[in-house]
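Researcher: Structure prediction, please.
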Amino acid sequence: MNHPYLIMFDYDGVIVDSLDVFANAFLWSCHASGYDGITTREQFKALLDGNFYESLKQNGLSRKLINLILGEGFTREVERHLHEIVLFDGVVGLLDSLSARHVLMVITSNASNVVQQFFDREKINCFESVLGVEVEKSKVKKIEKAKSIHPARPAFYVGDTRGDILEGRQAGATTIAVTWGWHNEEKLREAKPDYMVHTPVELLNLFEII
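Model: Predicted structure follows.
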């Protein structure tokens, strides 16, 4: 088989170094929306212990307020700083190598059009599709959707947060945690990923042996 695996990647924190831009835009949008219950970087990162949107609900935010915070103003703020977002070292080579043999998709809580703008800028075209927040807020459901498109392929989800790993497992994917993203190794180990890697080269090598 030319493409034996379905490999699904989170975007923020796995492919791109975007924590500063995303966190600052989120905190700005919270304040602009009149919500001051989350004001620090650590509070923001704690939301990623599980599904981002469910964590916001658990913090007492209504669906209306969540949609306001993560609405057009937030997206515009991210887009305004898109030039500050960069690829992690080694990721381009990783994607080029994996896409030669496997089907790659992006499963993200970001907006697909924001992700695609960055990919267009960097001339990255190795992904079959990008399933973003406008498709579905739950990564579990998006991973399940991707698996239904490629039911014969073993499915892997590559994430950088505790929540990514928990949702990937719930969706029935083999989970791979990367330690160069938004959560540190200690936090990732709480979710008990199937594999953990520390560099893109290590991730590439993993797919040579599994």
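Model: The longest strand covers residues 103-107.
Researcher: Thanks, that helps.
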